[in-house]
Amino acid sequence: MKYERFLNSPVFKRFVRRRLFDRESVFSRMLLAWFSARSMGRRLPATPEGVRDSELFNQWWYYSFELAPGVMTSSSFPVDFPLLPRMLMRNADLTGCDCLDIGSVEGLMPILMCRQGAREVIATNPHLYNYEKMQAVRKLFRVNFKFRQIGSLYDVSRKVGNKAFDLINLSGVLYHVYSPMHVIAGLRPLLKKNGLMIVSTNVVRRPDFSMEFNDRGKLQREATTYWYPSIPLYDYLLRYFKLLPIDCLYHPYARDDSTRFTADFESGYLSVVCRATEEPSFESSDTWAPESITDSYESILLWDQAKESAQPASAIGYGHAPGAHLMHEGGRSLDLWKAVNELPPVGVAGTPQDTHALLLSDRA
Fold first, then answer.
1. Using alpha carbons only, how large is the chain's radius of gyration in Å?
2. Residue 46's CB: how many other CB atoms inside 10 A?
3. Structural contact between residues 339 and 238, judged by C-beta atoms closer than 8 angstroms
């Protein structure tokens, strides 16, 4: 690309020698990606036939986007594979809200946040690999969201500035990290009081409190997949971080899903909408959790509860409730084990708007 040639030019190298510009810095790489994205957007052909032959269309895509009427990019998922956090997020009233999306890839969820009326949206990725595509689809879908490269997901509350969010989407992330608790601890201080967090991950459908490790790739061959928590443990960890489950959707992995299915035990993908609370929600007999939240060394070091307590309140609304019979003792939060076992699972997606594909006309 011509901008790559510029960065290798004698003029640019003089900037490097004068220490005015670091060729490998985040800023220089973002500058290159920004130039490339603008150039790619300008070069996108006006006809569907031209789009199919374009550099943008023929790249690898995680999500599928309609780049021209009837012209869809490829995707990493089957066409009828459900995107559970998308289905749940349309129940939230995002009008005037501030939203954060963790692991946005090309930006499907940030686009939908904008189209559902959010005031400010921040998309994130650990790296810049998808930045060109993200900028191109942001322009194509006529939305305006910001982007932050955050590197490691630990300590995120110190990487996005002095922000507070009404909605945080943390989906498809926790099984990719060494420590899921560390990630939630880093994000929790960014959520406004009474705000919503959508947390979605792979789970094991069994009633104990454990996490299954991906030894020998038995869960997924994907090299950065580590943990599948059991459903009760997942529920407990959310409530540990003062996140009350209020709604959920579950997709069981089928035998014909060669990427995700394991014959060793039943597993699936569980997406949960949580409401931020100032007090943890546990059974009256559980005296360990409140003490651990307050006094444990890890909580003190890794979870900025002072910042969390200083956040303003959110008025974000949520328009669906699964039913009182599925709640924990006291009725404050949804019992995920009951919900998964008593509510109908989500098999294949019923409409394109429930999938990993985004049409130009989609609003949610």
1. 21
2. 8
3. no
Q: Directed axis angle between helix 131-140 and helix 108-115, to 10°?
A: 30
Report the distance separating Cα 231 and Cα 337, nearest Å.
6
Q: What angle do CA 244, 248, 253 make, to 5 degrees?
A: 135
SS3 310: coil
- Per DSSP, 218 falls in state S
CA angle 234, 256, 103 (to 5 degrees): 45
Task: For the chain, report the end-to-end CA distance as a whole number of angstroms.
Answer: 35
| Model-wide pTM > 0.70 | yes
**63 pLDDT tier (thresholds 50, 70, 90):** very high
d(C-alpha 357, C-alpha 58), whole Å = 16
Residues forming CATH 3.40.50.150 domain(s) in the chain: 84-355
Write out the CATH class of domain 84-355.
Answer: alpha beta
225 close to 176: Cβ distance less than 8 angstroms? yes
CA distance 157 to 257: 36
Which residues make Cβ contacts (< 8 Å) with residue 105, sequence separation at least 6? 62, 63, 125, 130, 134
For residue 230, the 8-state DSSP code is B
Closest to 28 in 3D by CA, of 6, 60, 2: 6
Question: Which ranges of 174-230 would DSSP assign to H, the alpha helix?
Answer: 180-187
Question: Which residues lie closer than 8 Å to 354 by C-beta, 6 or more apart?
Answer: 82, 83, 86, 87
pLDDT digits (tens, 9 = 90+) for 248-304: 999 999 988 888 888 889 999 999 999 999 988 898 899 999 999 999 999 999 999
Q: pLDDT (tens digit, 9 = 90+) per residue, 176-220?
A: 999 999 999 999 999 999 999 999 999 999 999 999 999 999 999
